[in-house]
Design brief:
Elements (H helix, E strand, L loop, with lengths): L5 E2 L2 E2 L8 H12 L3 H10 L1 H12 L5 H18 L8 H11 L1
Helix pairs in contact: 1-2, 3-4, 4-5
């Protein structure tokens, strides 16, 4: 059973888990301008942000603040990601999420 943790009003236990194929499909759709695909991609990748937030909890950083900054980084990564480089989105996104 997943432990319920609410950060910034988001129940993290309820975040969807997207397969690599779903991620790739949604990325192509959102790059083509599909707003619903963009929203689903953002929500589907909040687990990535959450995994990075957990690293800062031990350092007494406010989880809400770190999660919000991470979500901003996630959106920046989505906006600047280029499919032609043939890399996984998460590989590209992690340094941007940390740097936001």
């Amino acid at each position: 059973m997943l432990q319920k943790v609410v950060i910034c009003g988001v129940d993290t236990a309820g975040l969807p888990k997207l397969s690599a194929e779903e991620n790739e499909k949604l990325m192509k759709e959102l790059k083509a301008g599909d707003k619903k695909a963009r929203e689903k991609f953002i929500i589907g990748n909040m687990r990535l942000v959450l995994s990075l937030v957990k690293r800062f909890w031990a350092k007494n950083a406010a989880a809400d603040d770190v999660f919000q900054a991470g979500c901003v980084g996630l959106i920046k990564a989505i906006d600047h990601f280029d499919l032609k480089f043939n890399v996984k989105f998460s590989t590209y996104a992690v340094p941007i999420i940390f740097g936001s």
